[in-house]
């Protein structure tokens, strides 16, 4: 009985020693073969756009301006258009002078008004305006005039008033303020000469300077033909 008991103790001791030895770490075994690749997962959502990058390059400096081309030839002067309801085409003038002709052969009365669109406010304010009445087809008389002979045995004083687009003529008995009518056919035409002022001043001073220049050049503004000859204009 005692022998059996010792045998059992010995068996238990051997089992404990074996269990303890197995519980300790042993040598690392060889790496096993790589497993198969798993199935690819679904694609994720697209992320937000990134910030813009810098420009590819810096603009170069501006080149120098090229030389200016030659000036082309000047165009020809245009002709004057028809002026006024009872006027005819204006004649061509030179660079700073223009003439306008108006038919008065059918006009009558103590006051005669001519529609003259050439008389803009700028022209009235700054330019010299000379008026001449034609009678009998060959005699131009400057107006305003103290005495105007119609050639019919009577005389009249003629006053002039200029306003925007209008040229007014008033006929009076000589030396009085009594209006005196003219009859159709006594007058042939009115001729206006507009001389543009080249002065840097304006108003009455510019007109006075233009008159002074004509006088210095020996031109009598009461003489229609002298004025036209001076500016090289056709009668």
Automatic annotation (TrEMBL):
Keywords from the named record: Collagen
Cross-referenced InterPro entries: Collagen (IPR008160)
Taxonomy, superkingdom: Bacteria
Region described as Disordered: 28-94
Biased composition (Low complexity): 28-88
Keyword Repeat assigned: no
Pfam families referenced in this protein's UniProt entry, alphabetically: Collagen
Chain segments annotated as coiled-coil in the UniProt record: none
Signal sequence coordinates: none
Official protein name in the record: Collagen triple helix repeat-containing protein
């Amino acid at each position: 009985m005692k022998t059996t008991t010792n045998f059992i103790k010995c068996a238990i001791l051997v089992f404990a020693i074996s269990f303890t030895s197995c519980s300790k770490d042993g040598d690392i075994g060889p790496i096993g073969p790589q497993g198969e690749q798993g199935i690819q997962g679904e694609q994720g959502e697209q992320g937000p756009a990134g910030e813009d990058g810098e420009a590819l390059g810096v603009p170069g400096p501006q080149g120098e301006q090229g030389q200016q081309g030659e000036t082309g030839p000047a165009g020809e002067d245009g002709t004057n258009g028809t002026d006024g309801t009872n006027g005819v085409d204006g004649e061509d003038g030179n660079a700073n002078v223009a003439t306008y002709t108006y038919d008065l052969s059918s006009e009558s009365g103590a006051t005669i008004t001519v529609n003259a669109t050439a008389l803009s406010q700028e022209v009235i304010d700054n330019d010299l305006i000379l008026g001449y009445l034609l009678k009998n087809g060959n005699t131009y008389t400057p107006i305003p005039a103290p005495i105007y002979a119609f050639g019919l045995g009577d005389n009249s004083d003629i006053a002039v008033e200029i306003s925007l687009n209008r040229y007014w003529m008033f006929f009076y008995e000589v030396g009085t303020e009594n209006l005196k009518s003219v009859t159709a056919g006594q007058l042939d035409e009115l001729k206006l000469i507009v001389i543009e002022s080249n002065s840097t001043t304006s108003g009455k001073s510019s007109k006075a300077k233009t008159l002074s220049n004509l006088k210095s050049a020996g031109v009598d503004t009461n003489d229609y033909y002298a004025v036209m000859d001076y500016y090289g204009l056709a009668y």
